[in-house]
Amino acid sequence: MKKATKAPPRKTGRSRGRLQILLGAHTPGVALAKALRWTPQEVIEEVKRSQIKGRGGAGFPTGLEWEFAAKAGEKWDEVAQQQGNEKYIICNADEGEPGTFKDRVLLSEHPEKMFEGMAIAGYAIGSRKGFVYLRGEYYFLKERLEQTLADLRAKKLMGSRILGSRFDFDVEIRVGAGAYVCGEEFALIESMNGNRGEPRNKPPFPAERGYLDKPTVVNNVETLSYIPTIIEKGAAWFTRYGIEGSTGTKLFSVSGDVERPGVYEFELGIILRELLREVGGENAKAVQIGGASGINVAQKDFDKPISYQALPPSGSIIVFGQGRDMLTVLKNFMEFFCEESCGQCTPCREGSYQLLKGLHMIEEGKASMRYLRELELLCEVMRDSSKCGLGQTAPNPFQTIIRNFKDEIFYR
């Protein structure tokens, strides 16, 4: 690895193979001790300078989210604590997007990074309580996470008077019931509140009124796991990686028709074709980036970078080889959305069903080009009027796969 000197922004990213920034060794407590020597605002400013954006897919600046929560309600101090003016940190570990399994690796192999990131976030916004909302299918990890928490409490890195300071912070594990929609922050919060997991209208946002109607920060497992490194090594060190507007590295869950599937860490800005070369997928026909709700990329776009400005860096890379039937792939995605829609809003509930119905008609040779244009218009209605990200992104595979493989799909 290079020495920690500031490099000029690059126009394109480049692979460094399996980087070990997030997946490498970590000494628990070093970053937390450093953060406790700073003021909460100084911690937030360092996170803002790192320019890290949410690694769960939304891409909202993490430091800005913390700042909103820190300023929400009354100023946090000991008196405010006694009066019950609480704030919360929630780690979204509801990794339900098809093709995504990077958070599972962090939870099983590096949970102390996530917990330390949560404690630093709690100190920054004035929270004494954190929750990990664990995907129901990851229940087998709960015992491991509880043991890690117990070890951290024994080392005074969690619990009361952390590292001898006046800062108290502890974490509780909550387990979901397997609903895909609970990956959306407000559906997750409603589930934690004991209600049906359904999205809310925004505003207000969680930083204003989240869990128990208190200011709440909801961050992804990967996002929180980066925080100790950013605090320990500095924002300037972190911004050496990636490209302008998309700083740092990113974990990618790579699956499908590749020789070397697995979890990889690359700099943001890496060219898709380079990534495919690293994983043994050079002969790909198409790549689904971002899971079922992501976009389909054909060979003509393999030279684009994966970044917040170009191909979305959501973390899931599903590779389809030359022999794959893209209509079958698309039907599989739309069946998933029909199954997982919470049914609360009409555009998502009915729109997903109509798109799937249209695919069956295409398969049977009964769909005209006029009907296809009506389905494309329906996609725009779903994107503009669905209540949450599920309905807003459900049309993505339909639009991009049809656009990339129209001849294959219609002239079978």
Verbal overview:
By secondary structure, the chain is of the alpha/beta class. The protein has three domains: 210 residues, Rossmann fold (3-Layer(aba) Sandwich), CATH 3.40.50.11540; 78 residues, Roll (Ubiquitin-like (UB roll)); 85 residues, de novo design (two linked rop proteins). It has a five-stranded mixed β-sheet with strand order 8-7-11-9-10. It has a four-stranded parallel β-sheet with strand order 3-2-1-4, with helices on both faces. The termini are far apart.
Secondary-structure blueprint:
Elements: H1 30-36, H2 40-50, H3 62-71, H4 78-82, E1 88-93, H5 102-109, H6 111-125, E2 129-134, H7 142-154, E3 170-175, H8 185-192, E4 216-220, H9 221-233, H10 235-238, E5 242-243, E6 246-247, E7 249-256, E8 262-267, H11 272-279, E9 286-289, E10 295-298, E11 316-320, H12 326-340, H13 346-363, H14 369-385, H15 389-393, H16 395-404, H17 406-410
Parallel strand pairs: 1-2, 1-4, 2-3, 7-11
Antiparallel strand pairs: 5-6, 7-8, 9-10, 9-11
Helix pairs in contact: 1-6, 1-9, 2-3, 2-6, 6-9, 12-13, 12-16, 13-14, 14-16
Strand order of the largest sheet: 8-7-11-9-10
CATH architecture level-2 label of the largest domain: 3-Layer(aba) Sandwich
- Helix proportion: 40-55%
CATH top level class name of the largest domain = Alpha Beta
From the alpha carbons, calculate the radius of gyration and give it in angstroms. 22 Å
Beta strand count? 11
What count of domains describes the coordinates? 3
Shape: globular
Brief characterization of the structure:
The chain has 412 residues and is an alpha/beta fold. It contains 17 helices and 11 strands. Helix 6 (111-125) packs across helix 9 (221-233) and helix 13 packs antiparallel against helix 14.
